[in-house]
Amino acid sequence: MPLGHAAGRGQAGEHETTTIGPQMNTTAVLTDDEVGILLAAAVQAPSIHNTQPWRFEVQGPVIDVLLDEERTLAVADPVGRAARIGIGAAVFNLRVAAGMLGHESRGVPNPDPMLPQVAARLFLAARTSPVPDLSRLYGEVGRRHTYRGPLLSRSVPPNVLHKLDEAAHAEGADLHWLGPAEVTELGSMLRRADSDDLHDEDRLHERLQWIGGDRPADGIPANALGPLPARHSLVRDLSAGFDSAQRSRAVYEPDPTIAVLCTPDEDTAAWVRAGLALQRVLLVATTYDLAASFLNQVIERTEPRYQLRDLIGDHSWPQMVIRIGYPAQPAGRTHRRDWRESFDQWF
Hints:
Nitroreductase/BluB, NADH Oxidase, Nitroreductase-like, 2 domains, four-stranded antiparallel beta sheet, Nitroreductase, oxidoreductase activity, alpha+beta
């Protein structure tokens, strides 16, 4: 279920029961192995520039996901919107792993006004049998990765698009699929945003800290950037201004399938919910061998984001722009820190 409202975390002891809403009680039964499985899944989530802006605390059956301010982007993401989307995606992976282990789960964004650094809190029920709709996605957690290469000229079947719509709706979000005229307008917006990025020294300096070269634990290594587009295409080249001579060039698909992930609200809680919806969509897409990358340069600046909102015209808030389809070639992957590096404490 989508992140909703839940009671604040108390000082639950090892054998105490925590009440989560009217129908869900849970006893603290997490083992060392379960914590490892849960957090290893969580850190596979996507995040802006693979910054991995999360930390975890575990108390009994409760997992807090905290915003790691040291891993946020002051220029590209000054209000922390993208960071909280990444945290939401990590929470969804926690729920998937919990479902595989047999734990029902329920969560709440911004659970404690006195602890604003806690972006989300997840409560786990006592272990029973696997949760069908979540556990079936567990195998996709490690298989999913952002693919920045060209896509095949093969349409995504309508029934699959419908499954992706359902995935977004399950987490309280919507996918707006762009028609040909909207894609053309988005292309113009992307060109302007790319040009603005190239002339923004602060943004380029920040990007250099996370993109290119060899990156064994975080950021985006050069081999995961994808080939340079041989002509203008609807793809984001994150290298912007510091290309490697070794990068190949490729012709990208002329008519990409693009969706804008939207939420009805615009606040920190909505950003976390957008992350849950994003990750459910991406994992469902992976079950159909689809790949995805993001065109978020139009969302990282205020003016083009409002222009995108006008373009889709449904009064909701665009949170992610997703380019999706069937990958045309193999691609490098980004890496993750060991989950222990993000694990603060276990009460």
